[in-house]
Design a protein that fits this description.
CATH architecture of the largest domain: 2-Layer Sandwich
CATH class of the largest domain: Alpha Beta
Strand order of the largest sheet: 14-15-13-12-11-16-19
Enzyme class: transferase
CATH superfamily of the largest domain: Ribonuclease H-like superfamily/Ribonuclease H
Number of helices: 22
Shape: globular
Number of strands: 31
GO molecular function, one term: nucleic acid binding
Keywords: Coiled coil, DNA-directed DNA polymerase, Nucleotidyltransferase, Transferase
Protein name: DNA-directed DNA polymerase
Helix content: 25-40%
Number of domains: 4
Largest sheet: 7 strands, mixed
Pfam families: DNA_pol_B_exo1 (PF03104)
């Protein structure tokens, strides 16, 4: 049957169709048709290189002159092929001859959309048949189209044991493009319906199969959760493996590809479904919180917490409820998934992700890959200019050595105005038309203020940056759209300035740094004229200290100064530089060694300390450190004698105060029990295992450092905590960056006090 409809693409992949022939498969959601699948089988792959002297023994491919050339003007050929064998043979031939090939790493299904200018939304026309509840098109006519659609979303969460080695339950909350459904699947000693939303199974195998069947039946486009990739999906995959089950979760009944390229970063790719990690998505939107726990974020954004609070012994309570109060555990599990759904709806997380796709053309599943964003925006413009993309893509790494526009004057500052600015390196690149291509072979180009030259008509990325900055100005009153533009700009510029990126050149990075120096000088000169001062800055904000009771409109003044400076150079900015967003009566800036972040704290009207970039998070910190830092900041920001307070607080800890805050909480791998026996958390866990002899593996431990027995499990209530250990590793480490403001260290603070005892 023939259809004409709009759709929003979610995932794509290059596949083998028949006999090694390549094809492309896409999945998406159509407002008119529901879930769709698109197969493209008649588009060849392509790479670029010079003349290949001999093609003897190579599989079929086509070679013809290409309109694209290298950045030095050298002509290239386009090599097209329809099979993977031909592609691999060509690559080997280029390699054997030492011949440079270009754009060999670009995935064929991504190039197809990129060259068509498709950014999320499409209009398609063609024949389709219905299969597994979705319309399947083969080689339809496709063009870019602006699409607004809802998605079917599944919020999922699991509960499992630590001392009890078992999956307890799985909760699913379905919303969008169909009826809302709430379901909990739980393990019990017999199969039955516990209540109107909970079904129990007597084996882990049956529970897992029921979950996979439920997902297949509800057919969500998007799966969301809190640490859903790094924990929930990874654990479910592990449980499936030990029950000899295939973890069938995507729209083709295949297992998801779950991997973690670095600590704390996880990805999950699957055909037809997208997984959105709640923690990282909300962080990408620019929100900051005291920690990343769902409880913390839900209380701040929704005003409600969880049924089992984080400050309780959560793991023990979950295990107790599983054994004694399964219905309460089901309610808790369901509340978690509902909280995540409401969080996503409250701040527009899915809309934020969809807007990023519309801005960059990168599909949902690839949005966290910075170089994908950059290439999708840059390469089509480079091709329009008659060039191939620089490099071959093999330089891509996660190395993060990008230049950042960052400065701060450590200390407490009064009457500080915060000015929001566009992503500043993007703003400057668009203003000066800075681009690796515009700077290459630009002997006859226009001169920049610092002496370098560039050809404006080859500033390919600058064109896209100007579009994004214009969108940002248009969207500034729409929260999630503005955040989407900001994050896209951030991804582009951070990636382009990494030395490992394919487009990077030292000349390009140098030009960006020179432009930042020019801007800083213009800002400082403009502020000096009105007795104001720039005390801190980063890629998205300026912090300006003004005189008390000053009526200076900093926003208008700075914008006029920069506009005048641009006019003197014959330049015109796409958008104004800054806008005022906050005023701080007092704000404290702190620097740490090799800092890449702006770290500050201030008191809000309610007297609560608001902190950015200064939280001491991670397993090496205790609640004692968190409490000490917040109280110390209050002392500093309210003008108290905070050095005296540090001494008094430290003595109170020596005298026995705050003993409820000194436990460490660490995870321990089973392999650590053999390989890392000297580490404190392993020593403590071994003592726990020896004392309690649990039957199931234990992978978390809470412990206290003691004087006479080293690390001891907190549950054993040790009587002799090593207080000097906590003073040195917690209090001193927190206090030293603040004491550096007055030229002291924690040790010197107490040494001076001891010397005073001998004064007569």
């Amino acid at each position: 049957m023939s259809y004409a409809a709009s759709a929003f693409l979610l995932t794509g992949e290059t596949i083998d169709v028949t006999a090694g022939r390549m094809g492309f498969r896409y999945f998406g959601r159509s407002p008119e048709l529901g879930p769709i699948e698109i197969l493209i089988t008649d588009i060849p792959g392509i790479v670029f290189s010079g003349d290949l002297e001999s093609s003897d023994g190579l599989p079929d491919y086509d070679q013809k002159s290409s309109p694209l050339k290298k950045v030095n003007g050298e002509n290239l050929n386009a090599y097209t092929f329809k099979t993977r064998n031909a592609q691999h043979a060509l690559m080997n031939a280029f390699k054997e001859k030492g011949q440079e090939a270009f754009e060999t790493d670009i995935k064929h299904h991504e190039r197809f959309l990129m060259e068509l200018g498709i950014r999320g939304g499409i209009w398609l026309e063609g024949d389709a048949k219905v299969k597994d509840g979705r319309a399947v098109f083969k080689n339809p006519r496709i063009k870019p189209y602006e699409v607004k659609t809802d998605f079917r979303i599944a919020s999922i969460d699991i509960e499992n044991g630590v001392n009890i080695d078992s999956l307890f339950s799985i909760a699913i909350h379905m919303k969008g493009c169909g009826p809302e459904r709430k379901k909990v699947l739980m393990l019990d000693d017999h199969s039955h319906e516990m209540n109107d939303f909970t079904t129990c199974f007597n084996t882990e195998t049956d529970l897992l199969n029921a979950f996979m069947d439920y997902i297949a039946a509800e057919d969500p486009d998007i799966i969301i959760g809190w640490n859903v990739i790094g924990y929930d999906l990874a654990q479910l995959q592990k449980y499936c493996e030990r029950n000899y089950l295939d973890f069938k979760l995507d729209r083709l009944g295949k297992e998801p590809d779950i991997f973690s390229p670095m600590m704390g970063v996880s990805f999950a790719f699957m055909s037809g479904r997208v997984v959105i990690e709640g923690m990282s998505a909300i962080r990408d939107m620019g929100y900051t919180f005291k920690n990343n726990r769902l409880e913390t974020v839900a209380v701040e954004l929704l005003g409600e917490g969880k049924l089992i609070h984080d400050e309780d012994d959560k793991l023990a309570e979950i295990e107790r409820q599983f054994l004694e109060e399964k219905e309460n555990l089901a309610k808790y599990n369901l509340q978690d998934v509902e909280l995540v759904t409401r969080l996503f709806e409250k701040i527009g997380v899915v809309e934020f992700m969809a807007t990023r796709t519309c801005l960059s053309g990168v599909m949902f599943s690839q949005l966290e890959i910075n170089n994908a964003i950059l290439e999708n925006l840059w390469i089509p413009e480079i091709h329009k200019g008659g060039f191939v993309a620089l490099g071959d893509g093999e330089k891509k790494t996660s190395r993060n050595d990008a230049y950042r526009y960052l400065a701060s004057e450590a200390g407490v500052h009064d009457n500080v105005v915060q000015l929001r600015i566009p992503q500043i390196t993007a703003w400057l690149a668009s203003l000066f038309d800075i681009d690796p291509y515009s700077l290459a072979q630009a002997e006859n180009g226009e001169e920049l203020p610092w002496g370098a030259k560039r050809l404006k008509d080859q500033a390919f990325i600058a064109k896209e940056l100007k579009k994004l900055l214009t969108y940002r100005s248009q969207f500034k009153d729409c929260d999630w759209q503005c955040r989407a533009v900001n994050h896209t700009l951030k991804q582009c510029m951070e990636e382009s300035l990494k030395s490992a990126n394919r487009f990077f050149t030292p000349t390009y990075k140098g030009a960006i740094m020179q432009a930042c120096a020019w801007l800083t000088e213009e800002i400082n000169q403009g502020l000096l004229a009105v007795s104001a001062k720039l005390v801190a800055s980063n890629d998205t904000s300026l912090y300006v200290s003004v005189e008390e009771y000053s009526e200076l409109d900093v926003e208008t003044h700075l914008n006029q100064c920069i506009q005048n400076a641009c006019s003197d150079l014959g330049l015109e900015a796409v958008v104004p530089l800054c806008e005022k967003i906050a005023i701080f009566e007092k704000i404290l800036f702190i620097k740490r060694n090799n800092d890449n972040f702006l770290r500050y704290a201030y008191l809000c009207e309610e007297g609560e300390v608001k902190i950015t970039g200064l939280y001491n998070t991670g397993p090496r910190w205790t609640q004692l450190a968190h409490y000490f830092q917040e109280e110390l900041m209050k002392q500093i920001l309210t003008g108290k004698d905070w050095q005296v307070w540090i001494r008094e607080f430290t003595e109170s800890v020596r005298d026995g105060a705050h003993r409820d805050k000194i436990s460490y909480f660490r995870k321990v791998k089973q392999s650590d029990l053999l390989e890392k026996k000297d580490q404190a958390q392993v020593v403590a866990l071994l003592k726990y295992l020896d004392y309690y002899k649990p039957t199931a593996p234990v992978n978390v431990i809470s412990y206290i450092m003691t004087l006479d027995d080293g690390p001891v499990p907190s549950v054993l209530n040790p009587r002799t905590p090593d207080i000097e250990h906590y003073i040195e590793s917690q209090l001193a480490r927190v206090a030293n960056p603040y004491l550096a403001l007055v030229g002291k260290t924690f040790e010197e603070l107490f040494h001076a006090e001891q010397l005073s005892l001998f004064e007569f």
